[in-house]
């Protein structure tokens, strides 16, 4: 019997070696490597402090200039576990970009979809021009640059502006679909300011043609979003007050690959812990508080950025004043693939035990 078992083991090992030589893999041996009972996430939550990052960006403002051939002056938030994708999550990349007073950046377009969130702006003639239309940047406004659309930036004020870039290039690169096209001169006919927002309103002449792009070129004003947050009667224990920036053409997410949201955590709010199969990157618009992720507390304040990977328990706590969070999630991708799910923590009153505090 022992001899038979030994012979069988030798024969199986020989089969494994021959399969490897034929560039095949035995499912019975490796199935746990590619099918798991719960999501296998290969990167950790992380937090980038505004006070640590902005001095570096301002130093770059002195060293990296358009005259020296640098079209963009931005710094990526790089998760320590994702150094080769230069991204915060496996699907979403974020960066802070600085455009100094009087600077302009030439037009280009790319396969990656992008949004801009004005982190610090004094208003005035600061804008991203998309498909020939200027989208002005007041502080905390959200601007869309959908995939494949021409865009350029200009700061015609005496003040610097810093905005948060959010792009889906990690996902585009995973799909091996990245493309980039530089522009020269005027790449699109000019459109009047507010053209898209006005055209996508509730009324239009019967003979008017439909909106020309598949995805809208839009500016979502923070003044309107803030008012909507405070006017909302929908608040729940998982999110506080949460509103999504909606595509007015199809009532869907902000971009096909990125859902953008704003969140109001009223004074001393403590949300219930939940986890989901989507990854989410947060930017702190205002206030102070913390987010507990898998038992680790991440204290945050205005300007900070943090990432919650998929299937991580997380809950938010605001301090003594109202706090506002902006977030970008790959939830639309997970939904369209039929892979999105979420669950709330059912034990301990819906809250995690804090085991430690984040240290960078």
TrEMBL record:
<protein>
    <submittedName>
        <fullName>Gentisate 1,2-dioxygenase</fullName>
    </submittedName>
</protein>
<dbReference type="InterPro" id="IPR014710">
    <property type="entry name" value="RmlC-like_jellyroll"/>
</dbReference>
<dbReference type="InterPro" id="IPR011051">
    <property type="entry name" value="RmlC_Cupin_sf"/>
</dbReference>
<keyword id="KW-0223">Dioxygenase</keyword>
<feature type="domain" description="Cupin type-2">
    <location>
        <begin position="97"/>
        <end position="166"/>
    </location>
</feature>
<dbReference type="InterPro" id="IPR047183">
    <property type="entry name" value="GDO-like"/>
</dbReference>
<keyword id="KW-0560">Oxidoreductase</keyword>
<dbReference type="InterPro" id="IPR013096">
    <property type="entry name" value="Cupin_2"/>
</dbReference>
<dbReference type="Pfam" id="PF07883">
    <property type="entry name" value="Cupin_2"/>
</dbReference>
<dbReference type="GO" id="GO:0051213">
    <property type="term" value="F:dioxygenase activity"/>
</dbReference>
<feature type="domain" description="Cupin type-2">
    <location>
        <begin position="280"/>
        <end position="322"/>
    </location>
</feature>
């Amino acid at each position: 019997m022992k001899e038979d078992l030994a012979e069988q083991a030798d024969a199986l090992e020989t089969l494994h070696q021959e399969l490897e030589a034929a560039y095949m893999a035995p499912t019975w041996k490796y199935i746990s490597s590619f099918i798991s009972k719960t999501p296998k996430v290969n990167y950790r939550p992380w937090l980038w402090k505004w006070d640590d990052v902005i001095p570096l960006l301002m130093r770059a403002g002195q060293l990296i200039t358009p005259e020296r051939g640098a079209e963009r002056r931005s710094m990526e938030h790089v998760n320590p576990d994702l150094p080769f994708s230069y991204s915060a999550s496996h699907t979403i990349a974020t960066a802070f970009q600085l455009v100094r007073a009087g600077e302009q950046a030439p037009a280009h377009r790319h396969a990656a979809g992008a949004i801009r969130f004005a982190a610090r702006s004094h208003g005035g003639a600061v804008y991203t021009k998309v498909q020939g239309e200027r989208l002005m940047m007041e502080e905390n406004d959200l601007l869309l640059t959908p995939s494949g659309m021409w865009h350029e930036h200009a700061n015609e004020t005496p003040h610097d502006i810093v905005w948060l870039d959010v792009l889906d290039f990690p996902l585009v690169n995973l799909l091996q679909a990245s493309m980039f096209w530089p522009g020269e001169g005027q790449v699109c006919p000019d459109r009047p300011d507010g053209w898209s927002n006005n055209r996508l309103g509730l009324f239009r002449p019967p003979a008017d043609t439909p909106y020309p792009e598949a995805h809208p070129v839009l500016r979502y004003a923070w003044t309107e979003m803030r008012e909507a947050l405070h006017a909302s009667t929908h608040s729940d224990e998982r999110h506080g007050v949460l509103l999504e920036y909606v595509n007015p053409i199809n009532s869907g997410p902000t971009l096909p690959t990125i859902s953008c949201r704003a969140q109001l955590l009223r004074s001393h709010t403590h949300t219930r812990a939940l986890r989901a199969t989507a990854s989410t990157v947060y930017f702190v618009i205002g206030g102070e508080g913390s987010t507990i992720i898998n038992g680790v507390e991440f204290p945050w304040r205005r300007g900070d950025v943090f990432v919650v990977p998929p299937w991580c328990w997380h809950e938010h706590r605001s301090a003594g004043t109202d706090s506002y969070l902006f977030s970008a999630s790959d939830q639309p991708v997970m939904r369209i693939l039929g892979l999105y799910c979420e669950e709330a923590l059912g034990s301990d009153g819906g809250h995690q035990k804090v085991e430690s505090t984040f240290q960078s």
